[in-house]
Design brief:
2 domains, 4-stranded antiparallel beta sheet, Methylamine Dehydrogenase, Chain H, mainly beta
């Protein structure tokens, strides 16, 4: 049902109808007092089983995902130009990193967990420190959209791929430009081998190119795709490369020789996002039909289809232990799946600021930090519920401090109104 228009500059009022000795009256204060009393006596709400309708992680497409090496954090980059840090596995929003002026197309975390890199359509790469999210430097030099970033496992290099037809290599931690690799059109994906001696890049010219590191010499060009290559992934043993893109099946290649091993099922015409599990047994693909598909490796047999997103899946990432998979989509959500069964888990990655105006959250504090979670979510033992309801544009809330602890929840008592009343 559509909502009546309202002027957000004015402060709408909410009233209760009350009968007194002089007849019927409207009383806003009594309504709020009654709601507060209800909050104090209401039974504990059960934990949510996922995000409610209208609860989103980003305002627009979730374009990139990366897990921290210690498994405590998930990082997302969105078409809303923001990078967000989420506590794992419950999905509480830790920090929002602003600074890019256009869509964030790629994110990566260094193997030691100290650095985060983000690639943006504003033609820059930004380097951030973790876990605090402080901006360390802005790497400039690309002259077109930057679509991908990757850290070398040895921590010495950062690679970025751009529509300016270059892959650039930056030194760490200073961010100085070391080398510019040319010859490939529109490199939209980059990834390092586990020994840091090889870089693979996928381009709009339908090729995958293999470069030696750190000198940047071109070793081999892998041809076979009919469309641009938008995703590449290398297994942890360094022996298998997966590549994919729009409108055609993903391909599997052996390394370092670059021999084509397999082309995945012709029935699945997309591999927009790719990730290989830490044990090298599974390939996850994010597809245009909104599904995440799991493929066994190295044979490439389809072993599972995870349905839940309503728009194309544009990002996938495995946790470091390989037991969980995160997916991001054009539907603005992040979903979490258990492996190997593929069950969708109840974690909700929700930012109230990015969600529908009628969506509400609650906040609690622990360890000197405040977290926002969906209404009704359990909170950790010892935490304090600081705000029962974080409102959207069209919601008013009864906010009560105190309470919490013992794994309970913040009782969210919304008072919904539309303006004018």
């Amino acid at each position: 049902m559509s909502k009546p228009p309202h002027d957000e500059r004015e402060a709408p009022e909410v009233y209760a109808i009350q009968r007194g000795s002089s007849g019927w009256t409207l009383n806003r204060r009594n309504l709020l007092r009654a709601a507060a009393a209800a909050a104090a006596t209401a039974p504990a709400r059960p934990a949510v089983t996922g995000c409610a309708a209208g609860a989103y992680a980003h305002t627009f497409e979730v374009a990139a995902l990366a897990f921290s090496p210690d498994g405590s954090m998930l990082v997302s980059g969105g078409a809303d130009s923001l990078v967000k840090l989420w506590r794992f596995p419950d999905g509480a929003l830790l920090k929002t990193l602003a600074g890019h002026h256009s869509s964030v197309a790629g994110v990566a975390i260094s193997l030691d967990g100290r650095f985060l890199a983000s690639a943006s359509m504003d033609e820059t790469v930004r380097l951030w420190s973790l876990p605090d999210g402080a901006l360390l430097s802005t790497l400039e030099g690309h002259t077109d959209v930057v679509e991908a970033v990757a850290f070398s496992p040895n921590g010495r290099l950062l690679a970025s791929g751009s529509q300016d037809d270059t892959v650039r290599l930056w030194s760490l931690p200073d961010g100085a430009l070391l080398k510019t690799l040319e010859g490939q059109s529109g490199p939209a994906a980059v990834t390092f081998s586990p020994d840091s001696e090889l870089l693979a890049s996928g381009g709009s010219d339908t090729t995958v190119r293999l470069w030696s590191m750190p000198d940047g010499a071109l070793i081999r060009t892998l041809a076979g795709h009919s469309w641009g290559v938008d995703a590449v992934a290398i297994s942890r043993d360094g022996r298998l490369l997966a590549s994919g893109g729009y409108y055609e099946p993903a391909k599997l290649w052996s390394l370092p020789d670059g021999k084509l091993l397999n082309t995945l099922s012709e029935d699945v015409q997309e591999g927009v996002a790719l990730a290989i599990s830490p044990d090298g047994r599974l390939l996850a693909s994010g597809d245009l039909d909104g599904a995440v598909r799991l493929w066994s490796l190295p044979d490439g047999a389809l072993v599972g289809t995870l349905a839940g997103h309503s728009e194309p899946v544009t990002a996938v990432a495995f946790s470091q232990d390989g037991r969980l998979l995160a997916s991001g989509s054009g539907d603005k959500s992040i979903k979490l799946w258990s492996l190997p069964d593929g069950t969708q888990l109840p974690a909700c990655f929700m930012d109230v600021a990015a969600s529908e105006p009628y969506t509400q959250g609650s906040q609690y504090s622990t360890g000197g930090q405040t977290y926002t979670v969906p209404c009704g979510s359990p909170i950790p033992a010892g935490a304090v519920c600081t705000c029962n309801c974080v409102p959207g544009t069209w919601c008013s809330c009864v906010s009560q401090g105190g309470g919490g602890g013992g794994g309970g929840g913040c009782s969210c008592i919304p008072v919904t109104y539309y303006y004018p009343n």
